[in-house]
């Protein structure tokens, strides 16, 4: 695979910065340097590092799955496996999300690659919003966190399954199967920069793709994590508690909180459980459903790799449908 000098310089700088970060993180004790750092900044640093370190393993998983799809799965295979009917294709996509243990950090590169390989946009959307919640790891963590309120566990999974199909259907109505990806110049010219795949071998090709995608996704992850840590550090949480008892306001508040916190779906249930005495059951479900579908980290990634009009419509559709579904759930089941 040929790489431009600019690409090599960017990767060298990125590796050097990562190396410097690891060196400072492991070997430098800033307390011994007698640097008086304000408490909020220390808290900001701690939250930022926790978000990044929590997300990086899942990003790595996502980019490797994406690279494997690029190298080993052809467009013809995807088109052959998916039902021809656009509506029927929504259901296997939702079921597929229940198999893969991929969180919202890792799902963006996977869905992006599948769409590039020929998966219809609306089917990719179903996988995008469903997989981070429906997978078995998230079910197990949610069940463990809410052992005394298992109805929240089943409500989370049931609403996620139904909403993923409805959201996919709504995006199909809005965009049909029109291309909404942002393509690089190389992709538009070659539609596959690895035409020399046979020469370098599929294993090397997989690692090339994974490394490229990791650095591409990583910069948006870091930016999103920094914004999320800013909100977490300076947000007045006492205000949330004051709104927690309202049947109509609390779900919206917790959805906003889930967006700002940008927690990994494997761990968000334990945070939600800590609000059990303050917020209504419906608002906890809103937190557990909305956060994995849409948070600050993956929103920045979506804007980076999809067209702005599509992302804006996606945000509006997901937000409205989750909020309405939670209100309906509260009226019917609570």
Automatic annotation (TrEMBL):
Signal sequence, start to end:
none
TM ranges are 12-28, 48-73, 85-111, 123-146, 153-175, 217-235, 247-263, 269-290, 310-329
- Location(s), subcellular: Cell membrane
Family, per the entry?
Answer: Belongs to the UPF0718 family.
- Please give the name of this protein: Permease
Predominant location of this chain?
Answer: membrane
What InterPro entries does the annotation carry?
DUF318, UPF0718
Bilayer topology reads: Multi-pass membrane protein
Keyword set for this entry? Cell membrane, Membrane, Transmembrane, Transmembrane helix
Give the GO cellular component terms, alphabetically. Answer: plasma membrane
């Amino acid at each position: 695979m040929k790489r431009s000098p600019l690409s090599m310089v960017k990767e060298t700088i990125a590796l050097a910065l990562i190396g410097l970060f690891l060196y400072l993180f492991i070997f430098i004790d800033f307390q011994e340097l007698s640097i008086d750092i304000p408490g909020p900044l220390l808290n900001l640093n701690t939250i930022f590092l926790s978000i990044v370190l929590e997300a990086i393993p899942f990003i790595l998983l996502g980019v490797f799955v994406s690279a494997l799809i690029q190298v080993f799965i052809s467009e013809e295979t995807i088109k052959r496996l998916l039902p021809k009917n656009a509506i029927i294709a929504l259901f296997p996509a939702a079921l597929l999300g229940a198999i893969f243990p991929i969180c919202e950090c890792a799902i963006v590169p996977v869905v992006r690659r599948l769409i590039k390989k020929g998966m219809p946009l609306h089917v990719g959307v179903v996988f995008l919003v469903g997989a981070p919640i429906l997978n078995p790891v998230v079910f197990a963590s949610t069940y463990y966190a809410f052992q005394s309120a298992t109805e929240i566990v089943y409500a989370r999974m049931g609403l996620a399954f139904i909403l993923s199909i409805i959201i996919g259907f709504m995006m199909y109505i809005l965009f049909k199967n029109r291309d909404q990806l942002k393509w690089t110049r190389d992709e538009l010219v070659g539609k596959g920069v690895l035409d020399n795949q046979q020469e370098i071998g599929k294993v090397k090709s997989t690692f090339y793709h994974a490394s490229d995608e990791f650095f591409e996704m990583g910069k948006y992850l870091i930016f999103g994590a920094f914004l999320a840590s800013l909100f977490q550090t300076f947000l007045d949480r006492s205000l949330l508690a004051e709104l927690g008892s309202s049947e109509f306001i609390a779900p919206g508040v917790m959805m906003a909180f889930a967006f700002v916190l940008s927690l990994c779906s494997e761990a968000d249930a334990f945070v939600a459980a800590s609000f059990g005495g303050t917020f209504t059951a419906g608002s906890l479900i809103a937190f557990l459903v909305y956060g994995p579908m849409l948070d600050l980290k993956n929103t920045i990634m979506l804007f980076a790799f999809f067209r702005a009009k599509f992302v804006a419509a996606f945000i509006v559709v997901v937000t409205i449908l989750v909020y309405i579904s939670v209100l309906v759930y509260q009226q019917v089941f609570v």
